[in-house]
Design goal:
Helix content: under 10%
Distance between the termini: 42 Å
Order of helices and strands: EEEEEEEHE
Number of helices: 1
Strand content: over 45%
CATH class: Mainly Beta
Number of domains: 1
Structural class: mainly beta
CATH topology: Immunoglobulin-like
CATH superfamily: Immunoglobulins
Radius of gyration: 13 Å
CATH architecture: Sandwich
Number of strands: 8
Protein name: Fibronectin type III domain-containing protein
């Protein structure tokens, strides 16, 4: 039996040029009750949100166009955050 995934997959990004923000959507993780978003800033991962109950996250508006961020999305399954896999599968987004 395959081990259930404990991190979000199939992460999709939509960009809003009008508001200079990004929206992430991902596939539901079996057994997860919360999702979190971390951004790599000034040499360390900083949690931006960790009470997301759905599979969508919209960033704040008016981020700096042209700036690139490294983003990781984690899931909390059975009270435990799998940050290792979230960071391993992190990606980058460039604000438009």
């Amino acid at each position: 039996m395959a081990h259930a995934l404990t991190f979000p997959t199939n992460i999709r990004v939509e960009y809003s040029k009008e508001y200079h923000q990004v929206r992430f959507t991902w596939d539901k993780v079996e057994g997860a009750d919360r999702y979190g978003i971390a951004v790599y800033l000034a040499g360390k991962w900083r949690v931006q949100a960790q009470n997301i109950t759905g599979t969508v996250y919209t960033s704040p508006k008016n981020l700096t166009p042209g700036k690139t961020y490294k983003v990781a999305i984690a899931a909390r399954v059975n009270g435990r955050w799998d940050t290792t896999n979230a960071i391993r599968h992190s990606g980058t987004v460039t604000i438009r």
